[in-house]
Design goal:
Elements (H helix, E strand, L loop, with lengths): L2 H19 L1 H22 L5 H20 L8 H10 L2 H30 L7 H28 L5 H25 L5 H31 L1
Helix pairs in contact: 1-5, 2-3, 2-5, 3-5, 3-6, 3-7, 5-6, 5-8, 6-7, 6-8, 7-8
Length: 221
């Protein structure tokens, strides 16, 4: 196996083990999802317009991703990351983080969708469009926040930078994900949906490429 791929695999396994060891992080995210959806249920009394359903769904996803991904670089000390640097390349470190955050965010996104389906009517009429939107939207958010969190982590843990740096990158992802979700709620043209999915996929690829290219410079700064 390629040494870089092997290092990515070990770093991914390492992060998953740390997450499993500190179960409070997973528990807090699940509690946030359930409590937020339940409060929304009490406010809307079991009735919610489809467009409102889509908007609230992605609002919750955004806050879950911020709370989950923003701590990915602070689970361990900087000295330990310097130790990792002696074992693996910066590219392997950032790709391991991206894969880990994408996996965690995809799980939390599916959990959010399940909890929404329990408390509210499931308005999704086309799952064939909705599930790729969930995959690309949540992974794009996770990747973007991984990059901005890495930058903030190097800037003396100034996580105020996360919100400043994330907004320009997150806005296109949010708009496309919300538009595709609204299309999945009713009738739509597949030709337009495929174009939007392709643009969303392209944004994800661009953000991954930026993280892969920029992180070695951030690391060595």
């Amino acid at each position: 196996m390629n040494p870089t791929l092997n290092n990515i695999r070990y770093l991914l396994i390492k992060d998953l083990k740390i997450e499993w060891h500190y179960k409070f992080a997973i528990g807090s995210a699940l509690l946030y999802i359930i409590s937020t959806v339940f409060i929304t249920y009490l406010v809307f009394l079991n009735y919610m317009a489809p467009n409102v359903w889509a908007a609230l769904f992605w609002i919750i996803i955004i806050f879950v991703s911020i709370n989950t991904v923003a701590r990915s670089f602070v689970m361990e000390s900087k000295n330990r990351y310097y130790y990792y640097y002696t074992l693996a390349s910066p590219e392997a470190v950032i790709m391991g983080k991206i894969l880990y955050n994408n996996l965690i965010m995809l799980v939390f996104t599916l959990v959010t969708y399940f909890v929404f389906s329990v408390f509210f009517e499931n308005y999704i009429q086309n799952s064939l469009l909705f599930y790729p939107t969930l995959l690309l939207g949540s992974c794009g958010m996770a990747t973007m926040l991984t990059l901005t969190t890495a930058i903030a982590w190097k800037a003396n843990d100034s996580f105020a930078l996360v919100s400043v740096l994330s907004f320009p990158l997150a806005l296109p992802l949010i708009i496309l994900s919300l538009k595709l979700t609204r299309m999945a709620l009713g009738a739509f043209f597949w030709s337009e949906a495929i174009k939007l999915l392709f643009v969303l996929l392209l944004l994800d690829i661009i953000i991954i490429a930026l993280a892969y290219i920029l992180f070695p410079f951030i690391w060595k700064d």
